[in-house]
Amino acid sequence: MNERNIKVEEVLILITVICLFILTIVVFEKVLPSSFKTITGEVVTTVNVTPLHIANCNFTLYSGLNQVSFFCIATMQPVNFVVGGLSNLDAVFEYEEDESDSWKIYNPSLPSFVVQDLDSMSRLKGYWIRMNAEENFSLEGALRIPSQVPLSVGWNLVGYPTNVIKDVNTSFASISGNFTEVRTYNSSSGSFISYIPGVGGVLNQTEPYRGYWLNATISGVWIVD
Amino acid sequence: MLIKEKNKPILIRKRCLLLLILVIFFLNYEIKSVMAVPPLPTEFYGIIRDYNFNASVGGVVQAYTSNGVLCGSFKIVNEGYYGSLTCRADDPETTSIEGFTPGEAIIFKYKGGFTTANGDTLGEYGTFKYVNLTYPVVYCGDNFCDALYENSMSCLNDCPLTNGTINLTGNQTGNLTNISGGSAQGGGSGGEKENKKENAPREITPWSNENYSGNYTGQEGLGFTCKESWICSNWSECKINGFQNRNCTDKSRCGTFETKLPEVQKCTYLPTCFDGVKNGLEEGVDCGGLCKPCITCSDGIQNCHDGGCEEGVDCGGPCHPCPTCFDSVQNCHDGGCEEGVDCGGSCEKKCPGLQLPTTKFVCKKDFNPLSNQSIFFFLLMILILIIGAVYSKLKIKEVKNNKELTAIKRAKKILSVRRRLYLFIFITLLITVILYLYYYFFILCEIGYPFLWLLLALLFISPLIIHEIIRYLEYTENKRLSKLENLLNIHYKQIENLLHIENENLIELEEEIADNLYVLLEKPAYKERNGLDEEKLLREIYRELVLLYSKYKEKENPITDEKNLCDNIYKIIEDEKYKQLIEKNSDLRALINKFKILYKQYEEKQNLYDEITKIESSKEELKEDLQEEKKKGI
Question: What is the ipTM of this complex?
Answer without folding.
Answer: 0.76
